[in-house]
Amino acid sequence: MANKTLTKAELKAEVSRQVEQQCQELIELSLKIHANPELGFKEEKASDWLTGYLARNGFQVENGIGGLTTAFKAAYGISKPVIALLGEYDALPEIGHACGHNIIAASAVGAGVASKCVVDNCGGTVVVFGTPAEELFGGKVFMLREGVFDGVDTAMIIHPGVRNAATTEALACIGLEIEFFGKAVHAAAYPEQGVNALEAMILAFNAVNSLRQHIKDRARIHGIITHGGEAANVVPAYSAATFLVRATDNAYLDELKQKVLNCFEGAALATGARLDYRWSEIIYAPMKNNLVLAQLFAQNLESLGRRVEPFEPHFDFGSTDMGNVSQVIPAIHPSVAIVSPDVLLHSADFAVAAASESGHKGLLDAAKALAMTVVDLLSEPQALARVKDEFSGQTS
Question: pTM, whole model, 2 decimals?
Answer without folding.
Answer: 0.89
